[in-house]
Amino acid sequence: LAAHYAALKDLPAVTPDGVKVELMANIGTHMDVDNAMNYGAEGVGLFRSEFVFMGRQEIPTEEDQFKAYKEAVEKCKGKLCVIRTMDIGGDKPLPYLNIPHEDNPFLGYRAVRISLQRKDLFLPQLKAILRAGVYGKVAIMIPMIINVNEFKEVKARIEDAKAELVHEGKSYSDDVQVGIMVETPSAAVMTPVLAKYVDFFSIGTNDLVQYTLACDRGNANISYLYNHFNPSVLRLIQRTIQSARDNGIWAGMCGEMASDPYAAVLLMGMGIHELSMSAPSIPRVKEMLRKTSSVKAKEVLADVMKLEDGDEIREYLHKVL
Ligand code: PEP
Ligand code: MG
């Protein structure tokens, strides 16, 4: 099996009828990049930058962050590296930020909500990412967006960061895409509008499933409800991909759903451009895409969208694929 997957490493994820899906890797540190490339990743679709902030006693400086991002970008050797700005809060607390106790951290002071209130955190991070862009192909991705205004503010902060870099005489890349995670139901519903402002969408199903189904992603008692094939979730995903296509931007997915080969077929049928996952999942997803035509995927998708229950959809997919 290992040899079989190794043979797939340098082959693209192309369907028999020629539809290509980019398969990328999720990483937590630059040390994960080489491993990702060994599994055939075509770049990094999610660098969870909060890990640069965790396991230390104080806020990492712009210079600390620049080094971490630059290493990852260099190791991508010209392939895209999507760096997500810090997603602290929720399930990832950070002691030195002294965030007051919250009854509902997943609904609380988290991710871009912190970034927009704390320029002292956000500007150094944006500057570090823009500087790392000089060493390869970088994109900035914003987590937990719920509305257009947040994204406009982010864009203003990026302009501030560039102005500071110019003032300080530091070189940076002006060719950095800026996109958002679609991981809240509000963002997914608003994708036709958000698509006019962003360069790309990446669907974060870990949170999107949790928020859509009001179902904690880590609670074993209700894990039977936590299903990425729930029809409501599938409709939000399809809407997001369609919004991207209608507006000429790309849509990807970086939540766990992207590593499910059966889901990958549905997503390919919906027209997704990119799937980002933990590196060891890449060969299995690639194998499934290489043997399933887009015509077949669209037929399966049409059938699935008529079904009314997530468990039923999963069973159906396992039967027909
Ligand atoms: C997600 O929510 O799907 C995601 C990729 O982000 P995280 O798992 O880091 O919350
Ligand atoms: Mg998330």
TrEMBL record:
Its UniProt entry gives the catalysed reaction(s) as: L-histidyl-[protein] + phosphoenolpyruvate = N(pros)-phospho-L-histidyl-[protein] + pyruvate
Q: List the GO cellular component terms.
A: cytoplasm
Q: Which residues bind phosphoenolpyruvate?
A: 48, 84, 206-207, 217
Task: Enumerate the GO terms in the molecular function aspect.
Answer: kinase activity; metal ion binding; phosphoenolpyruvate-protein phosphotransferase activity
Alphabetized, the UniProt keywords read: Coiled coil, Cytoplasm, Kinase, Magnesium, Metal-binding, Phosphotransferase system, Pyruvate, Sugar transport, Transferase, Transport
The EC number(s) attached to this protein equal: 2.7.3.9
Q: Say if the entry is tagged with keyword Kinase.
A: yes
Residues bound to Mg(2+) are 183, 207
Cofactor dependence: Mg(2+)
Give an example GO biological process.
Answer: phosphoenolpyruvate-dependent sugar phosphotransferase system
Domain (PEP-utilising enzyme C-terminal): give its ranges: 5-292
Q: Which residues form the active site?
A: 254
Subcellular location, record wording: Cytoplasm
Q: Is the Transport keyword given for this protein?
A: yes
- Family listed: Belongs to the PEP-utilizing enzyme family.
Task: State the function annotated in the UniProt record.
Answer: General (non sugar-specific) component of the phosphoenolpyruvate-dependent sugar phosphotransferase system (sugar PTS). This major carbohydrate active-transport system catalyzes the phosphorylation of incoming sugar substrates concomitantly with their translocation across the cell membrane. Enzyme I transfers the phosphoryl group from phosphoenolpyruvate (PEP) to the phosphoryl carrier protein (HPr).
Q: What is this protein called?
A: Phosphoenolpyruvate-protein phosphotransferase
User: Which organism is this entry from?
Assistant: Selenomonas bovis
Span of the entire protein shown here = 251 to 571 of 571
